[in-house]
Design a protein that fits this description.
Blueprint lengths: L3 H7 L28 H4 L10 H15 L3 E7 L6 E7 L4 E7 L7 H15 L3 H9 E6 L4 H4 L2 E2 L8 E2 L20 E2 L7 E2 L24 E2 L3 E6 L2 E6 L5 H13 L3 E8 L1 E3 L12 E2 L1 E5 L29 H19 L10 E2 L9 H5 L11 E8 L10 H21 L8 H6 L6 E2 L3
Parallel strand pairs: 3-4, 3-12, 12-17, 15-16
Antiparallel strand pairs: 1-2, 2-4, 5-6, 7-8, 9-10, 10-11, 13-14, 13-18, 15-17
The structure holds zinc ion.
Amino acid sequence: MNRRNFVKATGLAAFGSVTIGTASATPDRDKYRPGGPKLGSQKSISLDAFHTNEELTTELEKIERQSGRVSLEEIGRSAGRNDPIWEVKVGDGDTEIHLVTQIHGDEAIGTEVALKVIKTLGTSNSRQVDHILENLSFTIVPRVNPDGAMYHYDFDGDDEDEWVGRRQNTQAWTGESRYRPYYHSTYPAGDPGYDMNRDFNVRPPSEFDPRTEDEASWWADGQYMDMPYEGHTLFASGLRLAPEVRAVTESFNDADPDYAITHHHKGGNLYPGTGDGNEPKKQTLMSVMASYGEDYLDRSPFFPDGHTPVSEAVNPFLDSDTSTRSIKLNSLVIDALAERGNSIFDSITRYGYYPLWGSYLDSLCPNLANDGDSAAGMLYEVAYQTDDLGQKGIGRQMELTKVGFLESFDALADDPELREYSTETYFDTPLYGEEVQLR
Ligand SMILES: [Zn+2]
């Protein structure tokens, strides 16, 4: 997910001085645009450090065999490569957690960490793991996008394909919806595919098929489906055209989770307030984001005066309790990382939230398939690091993510309501700062 365009378009500075916000009945379309693949950043990491789809399968099967308490199920196949999409279940607790990684194929770190976490939960007999598994049940989809994960093309023009990964899956649009949606593209090398984190739809499959049951009047610019629902217009809703998205939707609806976590990468951004005067530049290595409903409308940084439409500012299908738990889950991770007392962990920022109606977080967390028994959501984005701002390498990003995941699970096992955490920790955390160029 890339909010940079929207931040620029509104002229909002890093600190979110809440002076913007002109009421508008039409959305800023720029903000729905998927970011392009972060090709500049690909040079700084070696994908060879990551599991291929085949290696991922082998590793998951090995963990299942060794563990005795992990169950592995193929829930679908990718559109282009026909590679398996795996779902892992572990734990016996009452609190259900749904976790997905690498919905964008060029964002592999979440999957690598998920694999470590699955192994730990599946094979460790530590007291911490016992405690977690007694209280929590996990449904994990590591690597939602096997096509994008393995994407090769001639990136540097040497007539040989490089393994670079890309954001989209590999899937042509062949007229299966009224229009070709805005999140389908052939970037970067002519191969068609969907940005799958724009392809979800809030209405459950049992109730509505956006591929065929839409109306012509809902469409804007021949590419955005602005779906009316429950008195709202859900701008740029997804069409569930990708089989991967349909599989994840079903996985989520079956799991009926209390918490939903999605992991991404981002480009480089400065930690606000650094890089000015004598203050050295410091990069924010992780940004987090909560999803919340109307009770927190006044905290929505892009719509400070409660401007309409509400569904542009907050997710109106998330109740007060769920919204609070979502924000506290983010507070917990911010606290947990800060307490590590290590300078690489104290650069956490947040995104100013607004809903993306085709995203996993905003379409699935309302959980309308289960009578709106909504899930508290959290989005992680870890940054690639630049040489001059910090030590490069994937080790730190993996460590940040792993600490975030395990601390979250431990705290949720203690108290699924997260009563000891404050929503203010989240809102006191700065919005991410200006973009830095990656080499
Ligand atoms: Zn992403």
